[in-house]
Amino acid sequence: MPVIECDVDAxxxxxxxxxxxxxxxxxxxxxxxxxxxxxxAIAYDxxxxxxxxxxxxxxxxxxxxxxxxxxxxxxxxxxxPGPAAIGWVIVTSDxxxxxxxxxxxxxxxxxxxxxxxxxxxxxxxxxxxxSVDVKGDSQLAVKQVTGAWKTNDPDLRERRVRARELLExxxxxxxxxxxxxxxxxxxKLVNEALDDG
Length: 197
What we know:
Nucleotidyltransferase, domain 5; 10 strands; RNA-DNA hybrid ribonuclease activity; TATA-Binding Protein; RNaseH-like_sf; alpha+beta; Ribonuclease HI; RnhA-like_halobact; 2 domains; about 200 residues
């Protein structure tokens, strides 16, 4: 549950300008509440507490845009195809800015890797980062997206195009293959999502 220390009046204006629905607080301590997708921001005197399954969406609206981030992504399936999940982590010089994981149904390992990359890139874009260094332990996804390898599978080709579109939205980007141990947090998120299923 993220807590953002801020000027809550300025935060309210930012959210209202973004079209977020704002309502009165439910207790004498709450100044107001803002609901956006699967999350609710609750304003107190000098902070916001964000609850819900997808708090990073509200955080992204409130964060100063710009800056550089590192994105780590991983996807996996138990069976190929089989039950699959994705995980991603966005890191800045201040630490972990956002992370997420979810089960995505039945998919191949490669499909899950691409879906993790796309989900992480969408969030980094929503946060307004100018540049991103992306790292994943899927050599196939990295080599296909960077153009080093051809993409023959139609499903993966669609995902490659989407990933490239998202990458091109940044002023500067890189995409590199890293060993699994460098991608440990994203890998852990995938396995936790699969275990919770």
